[in-house]
């Protein structure tokens, strides 16, 4: 689970792109997914997502993300189908319109989430924040907040599993419970998780301040992030994507 | 009581962390697991409690393979103190914390008995019970975690660095308490520890690990006297042993009186 958000080193086209380009591509895919209402176009976008994963050389990870999303997707789909009352009934309380909306919603979710996860797989978080500061002139404070949040996700998951291990060793039957029951048992553990997170945030803030955090500006970064031809091509592709989502 | 047969373990995406580990710990023994950082000590104790399963080999507790029961079922017999107490603590007061652990493993005793047990442990550790664990210092949180484990009176006690972050007095207090359980109730204790003075003072037998392998197994004093072994395991033996070793060297006559003074101060233990 925690590997999902981790950087995978590589030399692919996706790795070489400017971090800002990757961010724009992600946002444009998301935008296209929300503009369109065609299931087929959404399927096309899903194919684009998968192609991105393939080009970036992280096929296994892409499938892993897809599998993870599928669980949520199936749940959402069933919920949506059962709750929808419009259109003509196909079977029991299930209607044709309901099926269609459910498919759209679920596809949208998958299409939007995949590139977000993929960008993190092919971009170092530090590159992402540096490029944001340099190219888009985002104040470093905000870029840092974003990257820190991303960096803490795997740590957070690891900590949760460590806490569960410690509780199991005390006799709390995590190793016996499943599903909702397990979720219910996890809730009381949010307190230690939250406290250790707040503590860590405090320490990170102190450490950053000691190292001259507030002095840092867009001119401070050592690495430069120029745009290349590849970036222009990808940006062109983004424009096409948006145009298609409006027209189709 | 605890037996490891040719146990190996590798974390995913890594070489073997523990290799071919075999040893046997009898009931009522007080054993220390020694070794440099990353030697595989924490991994070994996690294997013993079944928190991770060996890639090959088997672990027996009380004659039964740990693969046959779950960790949470084992919890009433095996107490495990983690390196980081914050993983264990999850209640708002020390009393609730201790009761929470007791309820998980000794629920059948009924609330009155558990409350009595809790009061006993609180008094023993000098807590009032109303302290908030998360506003205590790290050393104090370590004591809270230990108190909640000792409250359940396990047969086997696994301690991963119980004395780190404690001051000398606190350290002695806790170790005295553990040794009392060991002597009086025949609790088997396995302790990972980096403080060799503590090991020398409290432990009977030491297992020395390096690079995931067992280098040596024997009485603590004998282990500490093996200079070549200590070197290989990157362990600095306690000063007292070091000193007494030097005294054995020919020509070392001048420090004798100082050594005698130290020995006397330490309660006249044989060097
Ligand atoms: N959860 C984990 N995933 C992957 N590798 C791990 C994990 N935990 C430990 N390791 C690796 O296993 C090796 C042994 O670790 P272990 O924690 O057993 O050492 P240790 O002897 O307890 O060290 P210390 O004295 O620092 O506590 C280390 O090299 C470490 O990198
Ligand atoms: Mg350790």
CATH superfamily of the largest domain in chain B: P-loop containing nucleotide triphosphate hydrolases
Q: What number of domains of chain B?
A: 2
The helix fraction of chain B, in percent, is 40-55%
What is the helical fraction of chain A, as a range of percent?
Answer: over 70%
Gyration radius of chain B (Cα, Å) is 20 Å
Q: Please, what is the average pLDDT of chain B?
A: 86
Strand order of the largest sheet of chain A: 1-2
Q: List low-pLDDT spans of chain A.
A: none
Q: Which value, in Å, is the CA radius of gyration of chain A? A: 21 Å
N-to-C span of chain B: 31 Å
Task: Provide an overview of this structure.
The complex is a heterodimer of chains A (248) and B (271). Chain A is mainly alpha-helical and 248 residues long. Chain A has two domains: 2-124 and 224-247, no CATH class; 138-215, no CATH class. In chain A, 72% of the residues lie in helices and 2% in strands. Chain A starts with 12 loop residues before the first helix and ends with a helix. By secondary structure, chain B is an alpha/beta fold. A six-stranded mixed β-sheet of chain B has the order 6-7-8-3-9-10, with helices on both faces. In chain B, helix 4 crosses helix 5 (138-150) and helix 10 (239-248) runs antiparallel to helix 11. Chain B is globular, with a radius of gyration of 20 Å. Residues 249-257 of chain B have low confidence and may be disordered. The chains are: A mainly alpha (248), B alpha/beta (271). Chains A and B meet through helix 7 and helix 9 of A and helix 2 and helix 3 of B. The complex binds adenosine-5'-triphosphate and magnesium ion. Residues 41-42, 83, 160 of chain B line the site of magnesium ion (MG). The site of magnesium ion has 4 residues of chain B, from helix 1.
